[in-house]
Amino acid sequence: MKKLLALLLTGTMILGLGACGGGTASTAQPAASGTGKTESAAAPAADEGSLSATQKIIKEAQGMSLEELAAKAIEESNGKMFYGVGNSSRGKSALPLFISYLQTIDPSYSMEFEWQQPKNNKIFDQLTADSLKDTGTFAMTLIQDGNQIQSKMVQPGVLDTFIPKDWADANGTTADAYKGYLPLQTLNKVFEYNNTGSKTYDNVWDFVAEGEHGLFMDIDSEIVGKNFLYMLTRDDYAAWMKEAFEALSDAEKAYFQPVVTAMESEAADLMLGPDAAYSLAWIKLWVESYNAQTDDGPICSTLVDASATDQFGLLVYSKLRSVEESATVSVNNIDVAAYNDGYTGIGGYGYCHYLFVTDNSPLPWTACAFIAYMTCTADGFSAWGKDMGGYSSNPKVLAENEEIYHHMTGGMAEDGTTVRFAAKNDRGYEWWTTDGKLVLEDPEYCASVAFTVGSWIEMLTKYSAE
Q1: Reduced to 3 states, what is the DSSP secondary structure of residue 137?
Q2: Helix (H, G, I), strand (E, B) or coil at 348
Q3: Phi, psi of 153, rounded to the nearest 5 degrees
Q4: Are residues 182 and 26 in contact, defined by beta-carbon separation less than 8 angstroms?
Q5: Which among 25, 110, 123, 251 is least buried, having the fewest CB atoms inside 10 angstroms?
Q6: Contact at 8 Å (CB) between 90 and 384?
Q7: What's the CA gap between 91 and 259, in Å, rounded?
Q8: Phi-psi category of 348—alpha, beta or left, where left has phi over 0 and alpha has psi -120 to 50?
Q9: E-assigned strands of 156-294?
Q10: What is the Cα Rg of the chain in Å?
Q11: CA nearest to 317, candidates 401, 413, 430, 432
């Protein structure tokens, strides 16, 4: 085992040295509380001669308001075809709203569009292949999985980050001072359990106790789930895992302690921090116990049924919005673990949908304007705005969206009356990233441990419900 880990660490160092010479785009850092954003000291200005044609446009566009960008978009794309690609199908819903916005400025404006949503994580292959053309097909992308974005998209120069001026102003920063990718939103996956029985979960370690088999999208099906496990090994989140362990009863500690002890040497071999053994123990028990599912929708459908007594899952919070109430199915059959008094430990994890302009974009001005529209207006964000657990990275849009949908009071029914379900009363981004102890994806950290911690995870034996 140690020999294998030594080889892995050597490989990581070699890859890291190779990566240092690539790309001009900035790397992402951990999200700052409240906005899903990151701020840092201003990075050194790039040499104008080293910028691609699209990067030069982006540099100019970052000093423009949405209205100024809209004028550029109208000039560039009137009567043309716009292709976008993303992990979220809702880009297809946002584009006609964007076109309507441009038509308020120029009623004669028209643009055809097509939005593609590749399945099975093929978006990276599709964008890579398109990047080989002098002028690409795709103008922009909405994409998730910070680890692969960092290693496969940004470092090789496939995608470029554009920071809208209005977004930067709302976040109290500037495009030059901001270091990171542009998030459209942060989404959360949270621990939920069926409450029709007597079982409760008051500590994150309860989810990996003997006999527990949580419903979870397999980490090989949705890679952001693997990024969640990577993030648990970062020092601050590992400290949370240790803190939750120490809150357990003596009997519970006695059950988990042998696994924690066994992970101490693994943590040292992986060159992780002083508390990482607690995270590795939890990861090992989780991977070896969770009941792998293909999607979060079926997980939600299972848990809200009265027959799912004592079952739990880790799933996208927004799935509760689509539950149709009946005699046996109800959101009231669900508890969000982190909302319960006395709950200790992480409440779930958060990851971002990021927006990028392709470096060989056929319509870079239009791409920038569309990105600014989605991140700087409530109408532009409305395709995602109905969901609790999806938080705009723009604090102004975040507040406007809450005024429209009232997520913090259980959401609104179609007839405009308030529907109150305790599990749907979203406590908001600020709460989740503080009291709720949401683990936030950091693309740079994920990329730094994907080879080492990732290879260690691959050696674990997954649970099989069969």
Answers
A1: coil
A2: strand
A3: -115, -50
A4: no
A5: 251
A6: yes
A7: 44
A8: left
A9: 159-160, 182-194, 215-217, 291-293
A10: 23
A11: 432
pLDDT for the residue numbered 413: 65
Which two tokens mark 15?
């890859």
Q: Choose among 423, 422, 425: nearest CA to 402.
A: 425
Look-up of token digits 């319509």: 363
262's CB contacts (< 8 A; 6+ apart) are 281
Q: At 111, is the secondary structure helix, strand, or coil?
A: strand
Cα–Cα separations (whole angstroms), residue 170 to 66, 95, 181, 236: 13, 23, 16, 28
| Residue found under tokens 């916005």 | 101
pLDDT of residue 203: 98
DSSP 37: B
Q: Distance between CA atoms of 39 and 171, rounded to whole angstroms?
A: 9
Helices assigned H by DSSP within 106-249 = 123-131, 146-148, 165-170, 223-232, 235-246
What is the C-alpha to C-alpha distance for residues 108 and 122, in angstroms, rounded to an integer?
37
Give me the pLDDT at residue 11, please: 46
d(CA 362, CA 62): 18
One-letter amino acid of 268: A
pTM score above 0.85: yes
Q: Which residue has the tokens 């409440």?
A: 347
In order of 63, 78, 115, 168, 324, the CA distances from 94 in angstroms are: 24, 18, 10, 21, 26
The answer to whether the beta carbons of residues 456 and 263 sit under 8 Å apart is no
- For the chain, residues with pLDDT lower than 50 are 2-44
Q: For residue 67, give the nearest of 363, 392, 372 by alpha carbon.
A: 372
Q: How far apart are CA 394 and CA 34, in angstroms?
A: 9
Query: Which of 227, 175, 268 is CA-nearest to residue 30?
Result: 227
